[in-house]
Amino acid sequence: MHELPQQLANGLILGALYGLVAIGYTMVYGIVQLINFAHGEIFMVGGFGALTAFLALPGGTSLWIAIPLMLLAGILVSTLVAVGAERFAYRPLRGAPRLAPLITAIGLSIVLQQLVFSFYPDAKKARVFPKIPGDPFELVGVTIQRSDIFLIIAAPLCMVILGWFVAKTRSGRAMQATSQDPDTAKLMGIDTDRIIVMAFAIGAAFAAVAAVAYGLRTGQVDSRMGILLGLKAFTAAVLGGIGNIYGAMLGGLALGLTEGLATAYIQHVPGMELFGGAAWKDVWAFVLLIVVLLVRPQGLLGERVADRA
């Protein structure tokens, strides 16, 4: 039990990473009822955009100067790719059967991976990403790596800014109206196309923040990093109630805690020795999803878009 605070901290940090990416899934689905399965690759290109900015800086540049520039570059690349995908891949299929955008998203994922390969031929291998140097912090018996400080600050800050934006700004209220009834919102003078683009852009920006946090945390990026993490983030969005931005973050935290605690404790349960450890953490994450959906199909906080009916 003396390890419990450390495992809780590890799970919350990992869950915050999942939650940042999950927001992109839930915002797009909440407005256009589209599961953007290319969002994992949006996360990935944000990481490589940040890496490109880092490699372009003169040698010896302070990491405290490099990180903001990397963050801006990652957000710029992810946002441009997401907005371009919405305009040229998804918008023409907006009235098509739902299977068509799904297939398009899968194809877009492959295209984005190949584009990364064209700029980074060795992208399938892990590319070194800068890590914040220094010894970890010790806080009430919990060890926190310096590279995790970025994520600990960025995730709550992003949620506060997004919550304020949605609740207090004119564009945020237009986003809520479009989510509830896009046809009526258009009749009321809301430019729904602009709102949809905004949802893609905000989700991509959050994914880029998560990509920089991932790179700082692991010290590497690679072309496959968006596949599993994107799937986990989608799971977090469904777990929290897809279409609910607060549910996305809650689902991410629940998923991270499940992975952290299952990795540490399942193997110590009598008869479960073979089902513990890091190799089974992904399995237990999806077991949690199945259990929650069996008990509460709309997710932990409910599916906001279900209120349309």
Automatic annotation (TrEMBL):
Gene3D superfamilies: ABC transporter involved in vitamin B12 uptake, BtuC. Keywords: Amino-acid transport, Cell inner membrane, Cell membrane, Membrane, Transmembrane, Transmembrane helix, Transport. It is found in: Cell membrane. The keyword Membrane applies. One of its GO terms (biological process) is L-isoleucine import across plasma membrane. It is a multi-pass membrane protein. The keyword Membrane applies. One of its GO terms (molecular function) is L-leucine transmembrane transporter activity. The chain crosses the membrane at residues 12-32, 39-57, 63-85, 97-120, 149-167, 195-216, 236-257. PANTHER family: BRANCHED-CHAIN AMINO ACID TRANSPORT SYSTEM PERMEASE PROTEIN LIVH (PTHR11795), HIGH-AFFINITY BRANCHED-CHAIN AMINO ACID TRANSPORT SYSTEM PERMEASE PROTEIN LIVH (PTHR11795:SF371). This is Branched-chain amino acid ABC transporter permease. It comes from Kitasatospora sp. CMC57.
